[in-house]
Structures are given as structure tokens and as C-alpha cells.
Amino acid sequence: MAYSFRNPSDGIIKHYLETSKIIAVVGLSDREDTTSHRVSKEMQERGYRIIPVNPRAAGGQILGETVYASLQEIPFPVDIVDVYRRSEFLPDVARDFIETDAKNFLGTIGSWKNQEAEEILRGAGREDIVMNRCIKREHTLTDLRRLPIRFINDKQLIIEENPSLLGFSSYSYSVSWLGWPVKWRGPCLICLI
Predict the structure, then answer these.
(1) What is the pLDDT at residue 76?
(2) Which residues make Cβ contacts (< 8 Å) with residue 167, sequence separation at least 6?
(3) Who's near 4: CB < 8 A, 6+ residues apart?
(4) Taking CA 106 as the corner, what is the angle to CA 5 and CA 178, rounded to the nearest 5 degrees?
């Protein structure tokens, strides 16, 4: 039987994001063109403290924060560990994670096929595991869920009111990064997903 990982519900992931303030990013690059850097910078702009973990850059700074070689070297509590490493490296990161007080383990998109990492985490009593998800996308979807949304089908949704009226001044940017074409039709915003 093929290995299959089941993520927590959207509500639980939303809870992780809403109750967290500090995100350690394993594999955060200092190169601005990388996904890890772009996503981490955006999450920092959204109010999270980003702690870089990258042995090659340890002692330096990325996004204005000191870079640590490992999770154990971070001298304060971390809420979420967001991992930007290939799937075969997840067991090592999981071993590092269980030696800390970090609360939530998030393996970013592409990390969904590592049964060993899941077994290490669960074997240590760590149950707050998310895999194959992008933290920035999950955060944006948390904001979107507050809007009056109606799904037409699995490819299209309608936001019933102008998001700017609901206090979402940067909404168009948040939707556009997801790659969703956006069209205003009367008082509605239609997104093709």
C-alpha cells in the first residue's frame, strides 16, 4: 500500500497561523529570487518574525535576522518550523525539530512523500504536522475565508462584496500571487482557481 499523509483540517491550520508569531525557516536562502526568500519576506511583512536556519549562512543575517545553523541553536521559543528542503532531507529536519520546543512542523510544497519524517515526529509525540503546503498560501486563504465567498465549481469562486469594503486593501495582490485570474463583475470579484 502506498504511503499517504493526511494534513490537519483547514481550521486547525488556521489556528496554527493565528496563534503563532515566530517562524523558523529551515533552508532560507539569502538569494532574493528563491521561493524561500520571497515567501519568508512576505510572511515577515504580514507581521511574523522570521528566523533563518541555514548552516551555510550561519552567523550572518537574512531579512534582518541572525541566521542559525540548526533549530537547536535558536535561543528562544519558535512557533512554526517551515521547511524548504527536499523531501529526502525531512527526516534530518524532523530529528532536529524534536530536540526543540517548536510547536508546529510545516513541510512546504513538494515535501509530501516522506513517511520516515512523519514517523519520527509522531514517535516523539509531535502531532502538529503539515506537509506539502505553502505557508504564505495558507495565510492568504485564512484571510480569504473571512470574505463572503461562494464556490461556483471546483475552478471558480465569487467574492460577494468588494474586498476593499471589508478592509482588504492589498487583496488583489494576495489573490494574484496565487496565480488566480481576477475579474470584477459589478459588485463581485470572480477568481478562477
Answers:
(1) 96
(2) none
(3) none
(4) 95
Q: What's the mean per-residue pLDDT of the chain?
A: 81
Using DSSP's 3-state secondary structure scheme, residue 39 falls into: helix
* Contacts for 125-129: CB closer than 8 Å, 24+ residues apart: 126/97, 126/98, 128/8, 128/16, 128/103, 128/104, 129/8, 129/104, 129/105
Cβ count near 139 (within 10 Å): 21
Strands (E) in the chain, as ranges, are 22-26, 49-53, 61-62, 65-66, 80-83, 104-107, 129-131, 149-153, 156-159, 182-185, 188-192
* pTM confidence score: 0.78
d(Cα 7, Cα 112) in Å, to the nearest integer?
10
Q: Which residues pair with 129 in a beta bridge?
A: 105
CA distance 127 to 191: 34
Residue 20: Cβ within 10 Å count: 16
- Give the pLDDT mean for 165-175: 42
pLDDT, one tens digit per residue, over 61-94 is 999 999 999 999 999 999 999 999 988 899 999 9
Least confident of 31-45, 96-110, 172-186: 172-186
Rounded mean pLDDT, 44-62: 96
